[in-house]
C-alpha cells in the first residue's frame, strides 16, 4: 500500500471457552437465552458471594498452551482488575496479570505460500462481562448479565504482524486451533471469538515502534481486515501531513468503515490489579500437563498431512478442508463412506461451499448433512445420478425439508436413462433437427454441443453427460 | 422455672431436652430481655418468625428428633446474609437490602436447630473498633452505657453480655470479635482462617475476614463453634479438614499446653493495669499446671501498618459492587452514569468506609502498588513465619486482647488512636491463626480480656486452655 511505511500489528484475541458452566459460578453459559436468566447469585455480584473456579477452564487453557508449544505456568494466579462499568457486576473483573497460565509460544501462518511465525506473548483466563443494551428502552440502559462470568482465554500476540492480511491469517489459525481442540465453538457472530488490534506504523528499517492505537472488539475476519487497513491509512495520512499519532483506544464502526476515538491514554484506567484473595493459586503439576498433552486431539497441521496421504487429495484441498474442525470432520465422514474420496473433496469444496457462502452459513449449520452428501456422491459413483442432477439437488435440498431421495424422485432425476433409451432419444433428436445435422456433417463441429444440450434438456438433466457424449459421437460417426 | 439468664448453653440444651422449659419460653424470655434493653441498640432487626421457629423446635424435641442446638435462641451479626431477611452490614448502602440467599454460617446453625432472634448491630461494613460507625447508631456497653462495646461486632458482644441471647455469631478481620468480647467481659473466638465458610458473609477484607462466636464461656463457645465450622465447597479458601469435637477437646484432660509469652510485647505494654492483669492471669494458668515459655515474635511491631494497607486495599475492591446499579442505595435522579456512581456511593457509605476505600485505592494505584501493597504482603509473610517459628516451641501464645478497657463514646477522635485498638488482635488475622479472648478481671468495674493465639486448626487446644483458665477463675461469671 505504501513503500515508506511499515505497519506493526499485535492482536489480543478473546476466546469464549465452551464449558457447560461459567468460570466462577455454576450458571450455564448458553447463548441467546432470556435476559438475566443465566445469571446466578455469583454472576450478579451480590454481597457475600464467592467465586469457585471451574477446573475445566484450566484444562482447556493448558490444551491451547500445549498446541502452540508454549510454557505452561506451574502456578496460575487470578487477579482483580478494577474498573466501574454497569455490566461489570463486582466492579472488578477476575483476570490474570502475573503468572498467566500460558506463557510464551508461537503460531505459524502462511502468507503468499511462505511460512511465518507469530510470537504469542501469553494467554490467560478471565471472566467475560455482561452486556449493556442501550436501544431497548428510551432514556434508559438495560443490563443483561447472562454473559457475565463466561470463561475467556485471552491470547496476546507479539507485535509480529505486518499487514491486515497477516492479521486475518493469524486469526484464522487461532480459530482453527481452538475449534480443533474443541475448547471453543469459535462462533464469531455470537461473540465466541473477539479481537482487539494494536496498530502502529513506522518507517521501514526503523527499530523503534510508533505510537499505537488500540482497535476494540472487532468480531469478524472481514471487519478486522477493513478496520486495520483503515487505521493504517489513517495513521499514514496523519504522519505524512506532519502530525503525530495519539496513543488511544478507537472503536471500529463497521457501517461507516472507519475508526473513531473512544478514550485517550490520559483518560485510561489504572486497573489496580492485585491477587484475588477469594481464589487460591492454582498449582499445575508436570504430570497434569503431560497427561493433557497426550490426550490432545489431532491438530490441523497433522490432519492436512494425513488427508493428503489417506485420501489422495491435493495439498490445496487438504488445507481448505482443514480450515475448521467441523469441515474437516464433515469431509472425513463422507470420504470414508465413498470409494473415491477426492470426489468428496471436490463436491464439498465446490458446490457445497458455494451454497454455504451464498447463504452466509457455516458447515455446522449446513442443511445438507454428511449423510446427504454420502447419498449423493454414492449415486454419482454408481452412475444413477448425474453431476448436474446432483448440483440441482444440493440447491433444492437447501430450501426444502424433503429428503434427498424424495427430491430426486420428484425431479425425475432418478430415471437415468440407460444406453438403449438414450440412443433412442439421440436418434429422435437428430431426426428432429435434420437441418443442424446436415450443417454438422458439413463440418460445423460446434453443433456437437447443441446436440448434447438438447439431449440433456430432454432428459431434464438426469442423463450422465459423459455417456451422452460417448453415444452421440458414436452415432454421428455412423 | 429456673433463672434462664444464668444458664450456660449446655445447661439450656439439657433444660430443653428434659422439658424443664420450652424453646418458646426461652425465646420469649430473650425477646422480653431485648425489649427491656432496647436502649443498648444491640439489634438492627428482629426476626418476626422467632417464636414460630421456637415452636418447631419444641415439636422436634417432643418427638425426640432434636438437632444438636435445638431450640436455642441466638443472634447473628448483621453481616451474615439470611434469605428473605434484611441484611444491612450496618450501612445505609444496604439499609433496605433483603438477601435472596443465606450464608453457610446461618444455614448450619439453622439446621442445628437454633432459633434466630435477629440481626445485631455492627460497625459499617465491619470497619471500626467501637461500633460508632454503624449507620444504625452506636451500641452501648451494658456494663457502662456511657462506654463503647468495642467493634466491629459490638451488637453481638452486648447481646451475649446483657443476656439477650444464648450465644451470637460475629466476624473478626482485625479483632472484631476479640476486642468487643474483652470490652463486654465475655468469651469470643476467631477460628483459623478458612475454618468457617465465608459464603454469604459480606466481605470487608477477604484474606482476613473470619466468622466466629461470642459466648458466655469457653465450653459454650466450643459447642457453638462446632456447629459453624467445616469445609464448604462454595468458599475456595475454606479448609478441607474434618472438624474435631471442640466441646470434648475443651473439656479433655489430655491436652498439653506450653504457653508462649512474647517478651518484648509484654514489656512494652503501656497501661500498668493491663500489664498487671496479664501477669495475674499468667499466675492463674501456672497454678493450674500450665507450662510457660518466653518467646520472641519478630516483625510483629509492623502488624498495624501492614494491616492498614492490606485490609483497605481488599475492601476498596470488595465494596465496588455497591454502585447503585443492581441493589443497595441508589441516588435520586442521576443525571448520567458517573453521577449515579458518585452520588449513590457518597450517600450510601459513611465516613470511615469512604476513608478506607480511598486508602486502599491509593495503595493499589500504579506507582504505589510495590511500595505499599507488595511490601505489606512481604512483611505479612514474615509475620506468619515468626509465628511458625514460635509454634515449634510452644502450643499457644498469650497476650492481652486490648491495650485498655472500654472507652467513652465519642472519646476517640483521632483515627490512628482508634486503629491502635487492634494492636494485639491484628497479628492473628495477618497470619490466619485461631485466637480467643476470655475475661481476665476488671479495672474499676470495666472488664479486661486476655488472648490466646493457637497454631493452625488448633481451636480445640485454645478452647481447652481457656476452659482450664475459667475453671480456675470466675471472671466469666461476674
Task: Tell me what you see in this structure.
The complex is a heterodimer of chains A (478) and B (478). Helix content of chain A is 40%, strand content 20%. Chain A is of the alpha+beta class. In chain A, the strands form 4 sheets. In chain A, strands 5-6-9-1-10-11-12-13 form an 8-stranded mixed sheet. A 3-stranded antiparallel sheet of chain A has the order 4-3-14, with no helix packed on it. In chain A, strands 2-15 form a two-stranded antiparallel sheet. In chain A, a hairpin with a 4-residue loop joins strand 12 and strand 13 (258-264). In chain A, helix 13 (419-432) crosses helix 15. Chain B has helices at 9-17, 23-36, 50-62, 104-111, 154-161, 178-184, 218-226, 246-251, 263-267, 272-287, 303-318, 337-348, 351-364, 370-390, 415-419, 426-431, 459-471; strands at 43-46, 73-77, 115-120, 168-172, 187-190, 210-215, 258-262, 291-295, 396-400, 435-443, 446-454. In chain B, the strands form 2 sheets. In chain B, strands 4-6-5-10-11-9-7-8 form an 8-stranded mixed sheet, sandwiched between helices. A 3-stranded mixed sheet of chain B has the order 1-3-2. In chain B, helix 4 (104-111) links the parallel strand 2 and strand 3 (115-120). In chain B, 60% of the residues are buried. The interface between A and B is large, with 28 and 44 residues.
In short:
The complex is a heterodimer of chains A (478) and B (478). By secondary structure, chain A is an alpha+beta fold.
